[in-house]
Every structure is written in structure tokens, then in C-alpha cells.
Design brief:
The chain is mainly beta. It contains no helices and seven strands. The protein is 0% helix and 42% strand. The protein is globular, with a radius of gyration of 17 Å. The N and C termini lie far apart (50 Å).
Length: 83
């Protein structure tokens, strides 16, 4: 039994492949299956991701240089710029 099925999402996997409008089966916090044909599990929670993109395992691992100083400290995952 799945914990969650993400439906109708766009998936960019670790190989760079882009899957349009697929269902993603999540079990125990891990992706167990991806199917463009649809997945059936009536007991799993279902979330419609139409118009959304899933990029599993992605984290912001780059920074930008602004002038002579680093704009984002190493290890940061989010940035808020203010004026």
C-alpha cells in the first residue's frame, strides 16, 4: 500500500529526464513508482499536482557573487533579498 500518490505532476528525475503528467507513488518517504498511465491505490492519500513540477532530492547547491562578496553563505537553502 502506498502512503501517497502525486497525480498529474511534471517530474524531473536525477537523470535529467522530464516526465510530463505522471503519477508518482510515494511509500515510506521514497518514490516507489512513476507512471504516465496512472496509478491505482484507493487507500493512499492523493494530491493533484496539475501545473506543478516535482524535482526529488534537489537542493540549492550554488551561490552567486555580487561585487566582491558572496550573496548567499555556503550551505544556505533559501535567500531573501531586501533593499
Amino acid at each position: 500500500m502506498s502512503d501517497l500518490i502525486l497525480r498529474n505532476g511534471r517530474l524531473i528525475d536525477g537523470t535529467g529526464r522530464i516526465w510530463d503528467r505522471v503519477d508518482i507513488q510515494v511509500e515510506g518517504g521514497r518514490i516507489r513508482a512513476v507512471s504516465p498511465e496512472g496509478l491505482q491505490d484507493v487507500q493512499a492519500e492523493s494530491v493533484d499536482l496539475a501545473g506543478k513540477t516535482v524535482i526529488p532530492g534537489l537542493m540549492n547547491c550554488h551561490t552567486h557573487i555580487c561585487g566582491e562578496r558572496l550573496a548567499v553563505p555556503p550551505g544556505a537553502t533559501s535567500t531573501v533579498f531586501t533593499q
